[in-house]
Give the backbone structure.
Amino acid sequence: MLILTVVLIAVAAAFAALFLAELAPNRGAALTRRLAELEEARDGPPEILRRRRRQLQAEQLAGVIEALGQRAQAGYKEVGALRLRLIQAGYPNARAVPLYLGSRVVLPIALAVGIFILLPAAGWPWTVAVIAAVWFGVLGYILPPVYVGMRRRDRMKQMQKALPDALDLLVVCVEAGLALNQALVRVSEETERLSPVLAEQLALVNLEIRAGTARDEALRNLGERTGLDDIKSLVAMLVQTDRFGTSIAQALRVQADTLRTKRRQRAEEAAAKTTIKLVFPLVLFIFPAMFVVILGPALIQILETLQNFAM
């Protein structure tokens, strides 16, 4: 029975390798041979060659995952929403959607097959291996969206913290006589150390405007890329100010005051939640230690007294 299982696993692995080879992008034999010759003749330290070889392997694996993702993308209905979510998470590349969908196919299979092979080889029962393979398969399926969601929340939190300071700097630049486009460039340069994500998004606005996109559309794209309600309200205010011809500096100052008030309210809310959050570590860690210190000597004395009476 064990030999038959090993043979079936080997046959399945061979078919999987052939399937992945079919999905991988094909190259001509002459081109592949020429690239191998150039790689062998290339001068450089061994570490650089190993690094390039690892990069080539990573690109080949990404090509296989992307090919699977492109096939999965054909039947996916919410491609636009997924693309926007990946952009907000920091993946604006056009390959992001196929790689994401392909990872949700490859990762569960790889984890499940790996656990199913390793656990019996380590001496675990087959039932445990099957349960662990199913569990790791589910984990591999939900891991990509969890990671993307965490990265998206981190980027939004970072931009939200740096936005009031960036808006104050934008007010100073506009009041100093700079136009809005030049002010955005200056703010993106100055806020790069504070928040690289926000600086990158502001620089993209200026690049879109220089490429010929209308300023209203470029600002709306900024709100969509970031996904922050504060930036969306700022964009709406800037669009209305530009449309009706009102003072941009005054509108920016009012918006900056509003954002500073919101930041202070968030800090007060976090401080108010601290007492409730401290209940769990107090009950689980501090109170038991206090009980041991306070009641421990008394319990020892009671036990010694009971032993004396028993004797």
